[in-house]
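Q: Here's a chain of 234 amino acids. Please give me its 3D structure as C-alpha cells.
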Amino acid sequence: MPTTPESFATRLAAMRAELTAQGRRVRHMVDLTYEAVYARDADAAATGIGIDDEIDRADLAIEQAAVDLLADATRDACSLETPQLRGVLTAVKVNNEMERIADAATAVCERVVDLTDRNTPFPKTTRVLTNSVVGIIDDTVRAFDKLDAPRARTVLASEGAVLNFSSLILRDAEERVADGRMSVDLAFDLHEITSQSVLIADHCTNIAEQVIYEATGAVVRHREGAWRDISGNS
C-alpha cells in the first residue's frame, strides 16, 4: 500500500509511542541503578546492566522504523509537511539520547559491582542529586510524550541544580578524604557515579531542546550561563 500523509502520520505516532515506552524503560533502569548504589547491591546492579540489553534492542528497532518510514515516503513520493519531517528527525535524536542515558546508568551499575567499600555512607546530598535526576527523566519523558514545551523548559531549568549538587558532593568527598572519613577509592567511585548522573541530566536537556524545537520551532541552546532562543522564535 502506498505511503500517504495519513499513513505516515499513523506510523510516526506509533513510533513516538514506542519511544515514550523506551523512555519509561530507561527511567526504570536509572531508578533501579540508584537503588543499587545506596544498597551497595551488586546483584541489583547486574540486573540493571541486563536491562540495558533490552533498551539496546528497542533502540535499534526504533531507528529501523524511522529509516523504513522515510524510505517508504521517498519511494512513494509522499508529500510531507515540515512538522512531519521534523517529527521523524526529533524521534531519531531522542532515541539516541535515551540509549546514551542507559549507557550512563550502565556505567554506574558497573561501578557498584566493583565497589571496594560497601559500608561508608555517601554524603547526604548524593541522594538529593539522584532524586533530582530521576525527576528530570520523568519530566523529559512526559514532555516528549505530550510534546509539552513548557515542561521541556522545566527540564532545562533543572540542569543547574544538578550541577550545584554535584559540586557540593565532590567538595564534601574531598573534605572526608582529607580527614580520613572516606577512602580515596570510595571518593573516586563517588566521583564517577556523580559524573554519570550529571551526564544523564545533560542528555535529558538535549531531549528537551528537541521537544521545544518540534513543538515551537525555537532553537534553544545554553549560552553565557543561560538557556537562550538562538533562532529568534518565541
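Q: Can you summarize the key feature?
A: Residues 5-229 form a domain with the Methane Monooxygenase Hydroxylase; Chain G, domain 1 fold (CATH 1.20.58.220).
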